[in-house]
Every structure is written in C-alpha cells, then in structure tokens.
Specification:
The complex is a heterodimer of chains A (159) and B (394). Chain A is of the alpha+beta class and 159 residues long. Chain A folds into two domains: 38 residues; 82 residues, Lrp/AsnC effector binding domain/regulation of amino acid metabolism (RAM) domain (Alpha-Beta Plaits, 2-Layer Sandwich), CATH 3.30.70.920. Helix content of chain A is 31%, strand content 21%. In chain A, the strands form two sheets. In chain A, strands 2-3-1-4 form a four-stranded antiparallel beta sheet. Chain A has a two-stranded antiparallel ribbon with strand order 5-6. Classes of the chains: A alpha+beta (159), B alpha/beta (394). The complex binds pyridoxal-5'-phosphate.
Amino acid sequence: MKEILRILERDARKTPQKIATMTGKPLSRVKEAIKKAEEERIIVKYKTVINWDKLEEEKVQALVEVKVVPQRDVGFDAIAERIYRFPEARSVYLVSGTYDLAVLVVGSTMQEVAGFVSQKLAPLESVQGTVTHFLLKRYKEDGEILGVEEQPKREPLMP
Amino acid sequence: MHPEGSPISQRIREIPPSGIRRFFDLLASMEGVISLGVGEPDFVTPWRIREAGIYSLEKGYTSYTSNYGLLELREELAAYLAGRYGISYNPHRELLITVGVSEGVDLALRAIIDPQDEVIVHDPSYVSYMPCTVLAGGVFVPVPTNMENDFWVSARDIERRITPRTKAIILGYPNNPTGAVMEREELVKIAEVARRHNLIVLSDEIYERLVYGVEHTCFASLPGMRERTILLGGFSKAYAMTGWRIGYAVAREEIIEAMARIHQYTMLCAPRIAQMAALEALRAGDDEVEEMVAEYDQRRRIMVKGLNDIGLACFEPKGAFYTFPSVKGTELSSEEFAERLLIEEKVAVIPGSTFGQCGEGHVRCCYATSLAEIEEALERMGRFVRRLRRHRTK
Ligand SMILES: Cc1ncc(COP(=O)(O)O)c(C=O)c1O
C-alpha cells in the first residue's frame, strides 16, 4: 500500500496498470488498494501543483499567526473550525510556540487578504491577536522546487 | 631513440581502443537523443553530502590526507562493513581509500600480478578488468556466461580454466552490464575453488547497495574468504557520487600495504573534499539511498516489461541499474543494432560486445533515467524493432 501511495503522491496521473508494472503487483491488488485508500480518506484528493506566478493573475498569500484563548472542553478545535470553514483559509495548523494557529490565507489582492484578516479573523471572540506575513516568493512547495533547476548533463555513453 | 618509431608502448598498443568511440562522434552531431547508454545515477548527490563538501572547502580542508585516507573515514567504513556484513577489518592497516573503484581495480591487479599470471574473469564484464590486467602484465582469461544461466559464472567453468599460472579471479556482481546478482550458494562454490587452488578473489562490489528483492552477499564474508578477497567498494553508485572520485579497498594487511605503496607514488591520496563528503554519506543514514533504490526498482520493472513486450528478450536483472536485452532476434549484431537505433530513432544504448564476446547479441540499456524518458525510449525502440521485422518478412 505505502509504495503505491508514494508513487501516486509524486504523480497522481499514474494509471493502476502502470503502478502494477512498477511495483510488480497484480493489477487487481493495486486497484483494490487505491480504492481502499480513497474510501478511508488516506488518499484525500488528487490535485495539481500549479505555479500561478507564471500566469499574469497572481495570487496573494499570507501566513497569519493567530493567538487564541482556548475554550473549555473543545480546546482549540472549535475556533480552528470557525476559521477553516472560510474558503480563504487554505491551510490551518495548530502549532506550538508564541502563537497557536497558523493560517495560510489566499486572496487575489493584498486588500482582499487584509480585509479577510481584519473583518473575519481578528474579530472572532476568542482571537486575541493576529500577525500577518505576506508571502513574497515561493521557492518550494510540498516538496516541489518551483523554479526550473538546470539539470547538470551526464556523459551520454559510459560503459 | 627507439628504432621502431612509435612513441606508444607495446603494452598500450595491445589494448584495443574503445569500440564506442565513434558513437560519441555520432551523438555529438545529433539532437533529441535519449540516452540509455549512461553508466551513472541520474540523481545528483544528496544535498547533505554536497553540503558537507562545501563546508569542508569553507573550513579550508584543502590539504593532502594520509596516503591511506582520512582515518575517520576508514573507521566509519570498517564499522559499516562490520555492521552490514559482519566482517571486521582493521581501519589502520586493512583499508585504503582510493580514487574510485577504478583505481582500486588497477592497484589490486598491479599489486598481485607477475608477468604472465592469469586472471579469470566472467564474460561479459566491466570494461576496465581486461585492460588493467594487461597493464599489470597479466593474461586475461574470460569465462563465458549467458542469459540462460542468468549471467552467473559457475564455479565449474572457473575451475576448468585454472592452470598453474592462475593467480586471481575477478567477480563483478551485482554486474555491469547484465544486472545479474549471484546468490550465496554459487558464490560459496567459487570460494571453494579459490581455496583449493590458492587464488586471490578480486570482488568489485560497487553496486552492492543496488539490489532488488534479493540480498547481496559480500564475498569476503564467506567462510575463509576474508584472507583471500580484495573487496572493492565505492560511493559512486549508491550515493550518486560518480564525479567525486572516491572508493575504497579492503583486504588483509599484506595486500593493502602493497596496494598502498603503488597508490602512494601514483596518486598520493584521494581528494580530501571527496573524503569528507563520503564520511557524511556514511553518517547520513540510509533514507536517501533507499529512496533511490526504490525508484530504480520501479523503473527496472517498467523497462524489463517494456523490452520483453517489444520482443527484445530480457532476463530479470536483480541489481545495478542495467538491463541487458537480447537483440539476436533482429539478426543484427549488437553494434549494428546500437548504431541503427541511434541514427534511426535517436536512442543510445551500448553494444554488448563492448563488455566481451559473450555480450554480443545483447545491448545494455540503463534505467538510471527518468521514467518519462524510459517510456519514450521504449516507444522508439518498439517502432525500430517492428520496422526491422517488417523489412525482414518482405
Ligand atoms: C562494475 C564497475 N566497477 C567500477 C566502476 C567505476 O567506479 P568508480 O566511479 O568508483 O571509479 C564502475 C562504473 O561504471 C562499474 O560499473
């Protein structure tokens, strides 16, 4: 199962047929494993890594530190849920350290992101404060280096 | 001045020039070629190893090291061999850091060969064994292996070629060019032969880490073989460090001392930066090596299936990163096949004859290349083979 998942994690478009050849496992077993992983939400979704910077319509992203007062019984979960339900919140993490929630916010302009933070995030009752860091450049995302790295050439023939 | 006129020594004139030289010239004039002719990883050296090299430069580690190599590196290697294969070597006297396994092969043969001593080697085999034997003044005695026997060399075939002049056997498994990995049982029989006839075994285990679903047997770990074996190992393949030029040799003290004497006068020492990077490679743990191996394994399966589907019969290689399909069905020689494939479909492979007579009828295809390129190459090779077939049936 893990080997199949690792292949898909790198390239979600690999067909079960190809994965079967690559792993030496029967096709039926591969299909079964993928189905099971999908059902159990081990595979959450198949997505594409896009370098939006290459298109004119740039997206603005900000990493927002959110300091919150945890609530009795539900701890951080309730406030996290209030936040992650907004589509503007692309990723939401509970973190250790000087603040509690790390929220990656996406918008089409800086105003839009700033508006979301000041109108939606900051006013939430248990939010004590926010610090917004706008992303200036994306170098690597989810293990993928976004710029084109030149591959050094190898000798084409070497016995 | 020598009366004959040629400035080149007789010994060098005995070594034929590389048969693939002209392919280089062909290749240089072409664009869009996919090369399955490479002999090294397509990965670059893992970053933490490269970073160790950079760090050593920054710190000014730019001097010679001991002739034997950094003691720290030798100690780490001794620990590695003990941990992995259960064999213990004294890092002070039984271990030598070399400029790649390439230098190790040369040193080992020069250290043990007297004029006319015979060296028994499986055919096909890595290209340096024969010239280095000749350079050392020895006589190269090939033993045929073939696809039907998974390119294993049999103890019986070796024994039949032993004469009073036989000094050593060279074993290169996991094998370049075939990808064959010999299993323990047969190696034990070869060990028996070596003992019976008092032979040295030069075991080139540079691909030791690149095995798929089988275990690598370190020849020196077989009963009684520690004293007879010159074990050559390297960093080039497992850690993708071909350009760093570093490897090692281990053997009993007497032999390492002799090899070190040649090394001392011809090489002095292996590059210090490479030694420091190699140290990091050993200390970094296996995660990145294992990731690379997992990926080679997947490509290997795609390539073996692809070649068999095309009709180029290919036995399943269990190690290194080569496949060695048969092209006998095309009725072309391995050189003709490689040349026409390059010109007509822009795919470069190495003719099997480069590796010895028994390599004839095969070509070596390396799968240390991206899956996308492997698939495109298979596509082109399929087209090429189908076209050959059509022309023949007409
Ligand atoms: C079997 C074998 N031995 C030795 C070498 C040379 O290795 P190194 O880079 O350590 O000199 C190679 C390289 O292709 C090889 O295939």
